[in-house]
Amino acid sequence: MQDKINEIEKSIDDAVKDVESSKTLQEIKMRFLGKTGEISALMKNMREVPPEQRPSMGKLLNALREWTEERFNAIEKRIKEFELKRRYSEEKIDVTLPAKVTDDGAYHPNTLIRRELISIFSGMGFEVFEGPEIENDYYNFTALNTPADHPARDMQDTFYISSDLLLRTQTSAGQIRVMENKKPPIKILSPGKVYRSDDDATHSPMFSQMEGLVVDKSITLCDLKGMLDEFAKKIFGAGVKTRLRPSYFPFTEPSVEVDVSCFECGGSGCRLCKGTGWIEVLGAGMVNRHVLEGCGIDPDIYSGFAFGMGIERIAMLKYGINNMKLLFEGDTRFSKQFKG
Ligand code: PHE
């Protein structure tokens, strides 16, 4: 028996020699002291020992167990201290280190322009109305004086969801929703995303527009011109002039294309204005009487004007961005360059 005890003591010594973690120590402990461990097995064997030898054997085994427990406790204490020290050194915080730089991002140029536009027009008394991005054919086209066989539908390559539902191609759809629900005077601004199957350096299948609509008694083209003059000065600079060119939109009559004098060269001709001195910024016109009528507004009493502009286009002009793709990449190194 003494031999067996010596053998166990030796194997304990061997096993604990290189232990460094409490987890391995625990495993070794179980190997000897656990329910099915080596020492426990010896204790169980006592039953087979002749009764006269039991007391002395019992003593030996108890001594072995005590010795083993003390041994493990001592090692455990050492390991715990060691592990604590290691944690202290690993988790040490050096308060003198410079702070980590976090990348904060910035407002997207589109957001900046959208806010600026809303702020300018709110100052003139406009309220913001946001219509749905999925529209039906009626609001996007028919009610805007563009029936099914109208050639102007070709101006806007439409994404259809079904024969009746589509992704709106223009925020003008919002005009109808407002006029159906509100009686004049109406003065609303409708910003939002629009969709067209178009994709190159200056066009994207999804982009943003800002629509304006004013309906009241005796509203004229002069009111539109005066308001746009004011708007152009506020957004592009005090020296900027506007001019109207005849154009065509099914829902306005007359329709105009609005140019601003080039704020880059002052009108003498440069790359931005392609040598013309003028830059096209938006479409506008007097609301077509059919459209007013369709919304239950009497065109003999009321008149109105509407205008619509591309937010990305204004951002590109104002900030000198030459490729629209930059606005859709979400790179903060790009957006950080712009300040409102
Ligand atoms: N909806 C027109 C477009 O997308 C712009 C516009 C709006 C023109 C309002 C006139 C009046 O091209």
Structure, explained:
- The protein is of the alpha+beta class and 340 residues long.
- It contains 11 helices and 9 strands.
- The strands form 2 sheets. It has a 7-stranded mixed beta sheet, sandwiched between helices. It has a two-stranded antiparallel sheet with strand order 2-3.
- Strand 6 and strand 7 (252-261) form a beta hairpin.
- Helix 1 (2-16) packs parallel to helix 4 and helix 5 (109-123) packs across helix 10 (311-319).
- The longest helix is centred in the first third of the chain and has 37 residues, at 54-90.
- The termini are far apart.
- The model has no long low-confidence stretch (mean pLDDT 91).
- The structure holds phenylalanine.
- Residues 170, 172, 211, 249, 252, 283-285, 306-308 line the site of phenylalanine.
- Phenylalanine (PHE) binds at residues 170, 172, 211, 249, 252, 283-285, 306-308.
Lay out the secondary structure.
Elements: H1 2-16, H2 22-33, H3 38-45, H4 54-90, H5 109-123, E1 127-128, E2 134-136, H6 137-140, E3 165-167, H7 173-181, E4 186-195, E5 206-217, H8 221-236, E6 242-249, E7 252-261, E8 278-287, H9 289-294, E9 302-310, H10 311-319, H11 332-335
Helix pairs in contact: 1-4, 2-4, 5-10
The chain binds phenylalanine.
Phenylalanine binds next to strand 8 and strand 9.
Descriptive key words:
single chain, 340 residues, alpha+beta, seven-stranded mixed beta sheet, two-stranded antiparallel ribbon, 11 helices, 40% helix, binds phenylalanine
